Amino acid sequence: MSDIAFLGLGHMGGPMAANLVKAGHRVFGFDPMPAALDVARGNGIEIAADANSAVAEADIVITMLPSGRHVIAAYQGDESTLGLLASAKPGTLFLDCSTIAVDEARQAHDIALAAGHRAADAPVSGGVVGAENGTLAFMVGASEEDFAAAQPILEVMGGRIVHCGGSGLGQAAKVCNNMILGISQIAVAEAFVLGERLGLSHQALFDVASNASGQCWALTTNCPVPGPVPTSPANKDYQPGFAGALMSKDLGLAESAIDLTGVDAQLGRHAREIYKAFADGDGANQDFSGIINTIRAQSAATDV
Ligand code: NAD
Fold first, then answer.
1. Mind listing the pLDDT tens digit for each residue in 45-59?
2. 0.85 cut: is pTM over it?
3. Could you tell me the pLDDT band of residue 303, with boundaries at 50, 70 and 90?
């Protein structure tokens, strides 16, 4: 059993830390939000006075923070606060599970190694339900040795753990997957609105496309219209699911990676534009399949 520091006890980190306690690990937690600390305390997490005290005794430090800026600031500290890297015992394994940019992940990895520690990027998919049920998918960027050290801990919180390669490649896998997802959810939504205009029923389009070459997760699990897939967010007034704000964030990270690499990813860039407008409007807290309502509303009123 390990001594683990867990920083960022929000929607995802809270239940992930609780699963580590359930599995018998000792977990020292910290989050600046008092409400998050109250829930964590109830789940058996030992609340530290601050982030530095949480990491001081730990063998493994897990971060589940809003952005790369938060991760690097926490690792490095500033004039008034000692960073986590300086507070940890030599050789501590720093496991960042937040979704951040590939270049930020590599920077976090490099400064952790330079400070005498070990590091891995291990972003997740599976959302809050996956975090609660311990069924998250982890995409890991690390050396073979650091991956082997992280794996037993990740297995407590996840169902599928994929070693994607070295530093930053966990984030690379996440950004590529979510770029496919964002583009395909828009494609499915456009097809349903087009079908509506042509007089095609939702069920007929679903029955054809779900058994043909249009088949994809955005259609068969996250179907953007109510009816064909009773468990999809469309049947619950587009309650997430995966919120529009998170899809917009992830496509922003995809766009940074596109800029960095110079890839001619026109659909990835366009999907980012579409989801940014959705999240800046009223879609931030809706499931991202709610983009169908924007497409319908923006479609010209014509009689076919
Ligand atoms: P959240 O806002 O609920 O939680 C983040 C927590 O970090 C907050 O409680 C905040 O107070 C805390 N925090 C900020 N700075 C801190 C610091 N220096 N030390 C300790 N705690 C600090 O966000 P979330 O939904 O739990 O998401 C966390 C990460 O997981 C994000 O990077 C997100 O993109 C990613 N993610 C989220 C989901 C999802 O469905 N929510 C799915 C996959 C990945």
1. 999 999 999 999 899
2. yes
3. low
47 lines ligand 1 (CB under 6 A): no
Rounded to whole angstroms, what are the CA distances from 62 to 19, 35, 74, 118, 262? 13, 20, 12, 12, 32
Atom 22 of ligand 1, residue of closest alpha carbon: 8
Q: Is the CB of 8 under 6 A from ligand 1?
A: yes
287 lines ligand 1 (CB under 6 A): no
- Tokens 């306690």 belong to residue: 21
Rounded CA gap, 128 and 131, in Å?
5
76-11-22 Cα angle (round to 5) = 95
From ligand 1's centre to the CA of 46, what distance in Å? 19
pLDDT at 302 > cutoff 80: no
- The kind and range of the H/E element at 120 are strand 118-121
Q: Is the Cβ–Cβ distance between 154 and 2 less than 8 Å?
A: no
Residue with tokens 């087009």: 194
Radius of gyration, CA atoms only, the chain = 21
CB 188 within 8 A of CB 215: no
Determine the pLDDT at residue 140. 98
Mean pLDDT value of segment 185-210 = 98
Residue 187 predicted with pLDDT over 80: yes
Decide: 12 in ligand 1 pocket, CB within 6 A.
Answer: yes
- Residues marked active site are found at 174
Q: Which of 84, 62, 198, 189 is nearest to 131 (CA)?
A: 62
69 Cα–ligand 1 center, Å: 12
- For residues 214 and 206, give the distance between their C-alpha atoms in angstroms, rounded to a whole number: 9
